[in-house]
Amino acid sequence: MQAARLHEYTDDMTEGLSIDEVDRPEVTGASDVIVEVEGAGWCQTDNHIIEGMWEEYVPQDLPMTLGHENAGTVVETGEDVDIVSEGDPVICHPVQTCGTCRPCRLGETMYCENDAFNGLTTDGGFADYLHTSERSVIPLPAGVEPVDIAPHADAGITAYHAAKKAVAELNPGDHAVVIGVGGLGHIGLQCLDAMSAARITAVDVKESALGLADRYGADHLVNPTEDDVPSEIEGITDGKGAAQVLDFVGEDVTTAYAPDVTAAGGDHHVIGYGGHVHEPAQALVNGEFSFVGNIVGRYAELQELVALVEQGDVDLHTSRYALGEVNEVAEKLEHGEIDGRAVITP
C-alpha cells in the first residue's frame, strides 16, 4: 500500500513527506482493528512533527507514517473485537490505550502509561490502511460519512475538550473569546455556541476566517490588523473582560492578550501552541486569572462530539486533497492558506 512517511526532520514543508510503498498492516492481536482510510485530516501538529518539535517529548522512530485524524471502514478485526465488524464506518481516536494502568482506570485515557499515538509515536493514517484497536474506534451514525468527519478525531475533540471546560465556567450573560477561527477554532466556536448561553467574540487576522465565525454563531468579530484587541474586548464586555478565552493560536502575541482581555477569575485556555507565555506573576495575582493547558480530548469526548455532529450542532469546513498532495497541504497551512481543515483522501 502507499503511505506518506517522514524520514527526517526538516523545516522545508515542500519535501517533508515521501510517498512510499509499504506493507499493509495486519491483525496481530485479539483487539486489533484494521481500517481502510477514507479521510485523514491534516493538522498543524503534522507540520510541527515534520519540523521535529515533538522529538524531545515523545519517542519517534523514523521513518514513520503521519496522520492522526482518521476515519474509514473496518476491513479486519481481531478475534475479541465486539463493537465493530468488517464493513462498519468508524472514526478513530488517535490514541490506543491499555485500559489497565491507573490513568486509564481513572478515565484519564490521554495520560495512559502504555499508549500508542497514531501519526505521532506509531504509524498513522496518511496511508491506504491504518492499524488501530477496539478501544479507539467509534462506529459512525447513519448518514455520517468517514471523509466528512475525520478531522474531528483530533481537531474536533481538542476543540471540544477545551470548550467543555470553558462552558462549565460560563453563565448566561458572560462573554467568551475565540482567538483563531481556523481548523480547531471554527469547531470550538460552534461547541461554545451549542453548549452555552455566552456571547462569543471571534478574533482572527483573516477576513475569510471571520466570515466562518459569523456563519457559525459569533456575536462579535475583531480583526487585529484593523483594531486593538484589548480595547475592542473592553468595549464589547463593558469593561468586565471575557470570562473564558479560547486561544487556538498560542503565539506570543495571543497569550499576551490574557491580562487585558480575561475577566477577573477567568481562564485563558491555550490550545494552539508554538509561542510562549511571558506574563509577570503580578498580572495573574492582580487579575486572579489562569492559563489553562489543553491536550487532545478523551475517547468519551469524541463520542459526545459525534453526538453533536449527528444533531447538526457542529459542522466542519473542509477541503480535500489526494495522498500525493500532502506536501502541498503542509506548505499551504504553513502560509495560512487553508480555511477550516484539509482532509487527505488516500
From TrEMBL:
CDD domains in alphabetical order: arabinose_DH_like (cd05284)
Ranges of residues in domain Alcohol dehydrogenase-like N-terminal: 30-141
A Pfam family reported for this protein in Swiss-Prot or TrEMBL: ADH_zinc_N
Protein name: Alcohol dehydrogenase, propanol-preferring
Classification via PANTHER family: ALCOHOL DEHYDROGENASE 1-RELATED, VACUOLAR PROTEIN SORTING-ASSOCIATED PROTEIN 11
Domain (Alcohol dehydrogenase-like C-terminal) ranges: 183-310
Family to which this protein belongs: Belongs to the zinc-containing alcohol dehydrogenase family.
Organism taxonomic ancestry: Archaea, Methanobacteriati, Methanobacteriota, Stenosarchaea group, Halobacteria
GO MF annotations, alphabetized: adenyl nucleotide binding; anion binding; oxidoreductase activity, acting on the CH-OH group of donors, NAD or NADP as acceptor; zinc ion binding
Record organism: Halorubrum aquaticum
